Amino acid sequence: MTQSTALYDIPGPHTRKRHLLYGVLSTALLLALVGWILYLLFDTEQFTGTKWSPFAYEGIQELLLRGLGNTLKAFAYASVLSLALGGLLATGRLSDHRVFRWVATLFVEFFRAMPVLVMIFFIFVALKVQPLPALVAGLTLYNGSVLAEVFRTGVNSVDRGQREAAYALGMRKTQVMTHVLVPQAVRAMLPAIISQLVVALKDTSLGFLITYEEFLHAGKLIASNLDYDLPFIPVVMVISPIYIGMCVLLSWFATWVAKKERRSPKTKAVEVPPAGPGTLLPGGGPPAGP
Fold it and tell me: Which residue, among 53, 25, 94, has the nearest Cα to 231 in the 3D structure?
């Protein structure tokens, strides 16, 4: 006999054995895949000293650090401007004026549908803008348009009763938006916002196509060096964990912010002891009768 809960039946002994077998087989397949990849890497001599020797030189290390700094600089500019542009466009799309809604909708739909690389190339080549501003502008236009939809959807997801109650109290639309709707919508929007910022962080790698000296551009210079036997795979194995680490840190920071908001002392209720017979109210009057 198997016990049950409100959601599912607790597995019995035969089911647990079957699940254990599935787990063992899956683990064996994953280990076999990892072993096969390692065999290919060793077979193609990707771990030779010649291919890994460039990372021991101070000049190569400085090149990678400079590229990483340029990547973070482009991401910082693009993320701040994208959030600002997204908020502005979302305000336009939520406006009561039809003209503002149409203009904001046209802007959002156009730049959200345009490939990021096309926008970057157009700004860099046609408008003759320097690599960093061209990269930041392209990332801002695309990610700002996507974030505008995230902001608009998040605000509209708040219970309609919250909006109506605020208007009933005599609050203006700006006050309703800033004090009632946006604070509640931020918690729902935060995962989508962080996901889009991660996309912006990874898209900074497109800068190497317009000769912007970011992290991937530095890796390309090292990987194409014939003196080190074209160390493409070692460069990928060094750069990829750093990109992954930056994305994980960004997600961790968002989780930390969300937990800090939930632990805010402003949201804690004050415990009021039950009133006994003859207890006076805080104002000094007698307790209300039944």
Answer: 53
Q: What is the CATH number of domain 56-261?
A: 1.10.3720.10
Give the C-alpha distances (Å, rounded to integers) separating 245 from 27, 220, 249, 252. 25, 20, 6, 10
Residues contacting 66, CB < 8 A, separation 6+? 213, 218
For Cα atoms 209, 211, 212, give the angle at the middle one, nearest 5 degrees. Answer: 100
- 112, 146 contact by CB (below 8 A): yes
> For residue 282, what pLDDT is reported?
47
Looking at residue 269, its amino acid is A
Q: Cβ-count burial of 261 within 10 angstroms (0-12 exposed, 13-18 middle, 19+ buried)?
A: middle
End-to-end CA distance of the chain: 55
Identify the CA nearest to 153 among candidates 190, 201, 110, 100: 190
pLDDT in tens, 224-278: 887 778 888 889 999 999 999 998 888 888 778 767 766 655 444 444 455 455 5
pLDDT of residue 267: 43
259 Cβ neighbours under 8 A, 6+ residues apart: none
